[in-house]
Amino acid sequence: MEDIDYAGVTFRVLDPVSLLKSKAANVRDLDQIGPPPRHDRAHLELIARCLPLYLRRLHAGALANPTVQGAAARVFSRAFETLLHRPTARTLHEVGIPRVNLMPVEFQQSSIEKIRTAYAWHWPRLQST
Fold first, then answer.
1. What is the DSSP pairing of strand 9-13 with strand 2-6?
2. pTM of the model
3. pLDDT > 70: percent of the chain
4. What is the tally of structural domains in the chain?
5. Residue 125's CB: how many other CB atoms inside 10 A?
6. Could you report the per-residue pLDDT of 10-25, keeping only the tens digit for each?
7. What is the pLDDT of residue 34?
8. Which residues have CB under 8 Å from 82's CB, separation 6+?
């Protein structure tokens, strides 16, 4: 979840990691034909395109503000855990979305130690499954 402030109001919204997992579950578990027809697969494909951009933005923000580096690292770890979650991984594979493309490879060398550690731990598992 993220808090978005707009026009003096704070909105709580799902972040792309949560959206990816929920849309993968919808593709897998809900009748997509309808009626009414659902568009979860298209949404999943769109979110998959957004996730690497979101992680890059998050990383840049953590570099600019070291006080949020721990929180950013937790999001990276949660992203890996989501991509390694077997039902989600299976759905992404069936839809044709390569999971390794969703985690920006350049952060293996992140100057943020906790993010680098998350990659050292999770990246080999993501590539092998």
1. antiparallel
2. 0.92
3. 100
4. 1
5. 11
6. 998 899 999 999 999 9
7. 85
8. 17, 20, 21, 88
